Every structure is written in structure tokens, then in C-alpha cells.
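tool_call predict_complex ligand=NDP
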Amino acid sequence: MKKFTIFGNPVSHSKSPQMHNAGFKTLGFDGEYSKTHLENGDDIKKVFLEGGFSGANITVPHKEYAYRYADSLDPLAKKIGAVNTYINDDGKIKGYNTDAFGFYKSIEKFEDVNSILILGAGGTAKSIAVILKEKNFDVTVLNRSENSKDFFIGFGCEFYNFDNFPKEKRFDLIVNSTSAGLSDQNYPAPLELLESLIKDSKYAVDCIYGKMTPFLELAKKHFKIYKDGEDMLLFQGVIAFELFTNTKANQKLIQSMREGLKKID
Ligand code: NDP
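tool_result ok
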């Protein structure tokens, strides 16, 4: 039986095991996916190899450690500077970032989207910005601080904070990649600004999943098409699953992973 795990701190809330184990069952793949609480990110390589894992996912706060300790990197992970998937290739670790493509898959069906505003400038914002620039979207980042400004400018994004944001700018899609709304009732940007941007947009996506955040409530109030981060979570998992099992996921498999995700454990 091949062993897989998710590294995080905390990790107890993670729904990745139930999603991947449902996929293994549907595929008839002899695999088992567990949770590993990892205190110190510097230990990730040792724990992964000594644990005999064939593959792993990596969540907060270890994605940059995972990047640092991979023996080789997929080109997208290299650009982003963060890794959320490990593959054990004969004792050598290859690192991937499936968050980026997972996000892209989650908005693929949106029509007439050219300009995208990303709220937040953390790890998730970076993976989203890199894939969206690769797909030739016009990307602007708005964050409360100047953190990582050079990273985004380097990829051809516009970057603003709340004080210098040009208030007349308008976007087809607005993405909340901040943690505002995760365990509080905060908006990711000042309400007046956010409401005017949402009013003139077509779509709103929150990376936070499983709840109606204040950001999504605002999109709903203005009759916009909106979604939370469940599809992003599902698709990053599907892409990792394909790497783990060396298969191409069909609709039946994707549906079983979605159901696994929704299972109350
Ligand atoms: P980071 O900690 O790397 O970044 C958080 C960002 O949010 C920073 O830009 C920070 O600003 C900003 N921020 C935090 N609090 C506030 C606030 N109250 N108001 C405005 N801005 C705020 O987090 P991640 O990028 O790793 O994760 C971000 C979100 O994405 C989380 O909610 C996480 O749950 C979700 N996520 C969802 C995934 C999915 O599959 N659906 C996958 C990964 C993440 P500053 O830079 O100034 O500190």
C-alpha cells in the first residue's frame, strides 16, 4: 500500500484525507492518505522520506519550507516560490504547486473575464497571480500593506495599497485571497471601496471555503455570480491526485473526491 499525507500546523481541520481516500477507493488504487502535524518546517524532508511516503500535500505554514527542501521543482512551483505537493521519485523529492492551476480550473467557466483584482498578497495571491498572468489576464493586486510588492510587479501585475489605489479602476472578477472573513467578520478592504468595485464587477470568488464570508455576502447583495474556495480546494486536490496515482481523473473520480470533501468526519 502506498502512503500519502498532508503536512500542516494545524492540520486537524484538513479535509484532504477524506477527499483523496475517496478518490483511491473509486480508482481501486492501493493507497492511504493521513494527516501529519508538523511543528517545524525545517523537518519536512526528513519526516517525508523517513515516513516512507510516496507523495504529500503541504498546507499552512509550510509551503515555503516545502519549496526550500525539494530536490527539484516543477517550473510553476519555481516561479511561485511555494510548494503544496511532494512526489517521492526514488528517494528524491519533486515539488509542485497545484493551488495555482486549481484556482484557474475553478474560474475556467467564467465568461468575458479580462481584468482581475486580487485582494491580498500572501502565498495564495502569489500562486493565483502567476497562473493568471501565464493565461494572459490583466491582473491587479490590492493589499493592506506593501508586503511582496516586488514579487507581483516582477510578474507584470499592478500593485496598490488602500491609500494609493486608483478608485476609478474597474474589474470583471474580484478575488478575495486574504484571510479576512476566515475566522472573523472583516472585509478584505475598506467597505466603501470594496462595495463600489463589486457593484461594477461580474464575478466574485473567495478562496475561503465552506462559509458565506462578508465579502461573498456583499457580492450576493449586488446580485453578482459568486463562489467560495471549494472548487479551488477540489481541483488542487485532483491535480495532486493525478500526480500521486499517475492517472488522468475522469468526471466520476472528480465527483467522488467532491463527495469525499463534503463528508462530515
Ligand atoms: P497568508 O497569510 O500568506 O496571506 C494573507 C493575506 O491576507 C496577506 O496579504 C494579508 O495582508 C492579508 N490579510 C490578512 N488579514 C487581513 C484583513 N483583516 N484585512 C485585509 N487583509 C488581510 O495566507 P494564504 O495566502 O496562505 O491564505 C489566504 C486565504 O486563502 C486563507 O483564508 C486560506 O484559508 C485560503 N486558502 C484557500 C485555499 C483553497 O484551496 N480554497 C488554498 C489556500 C489558501 P498583509 O500582507 O498585509 O499581512
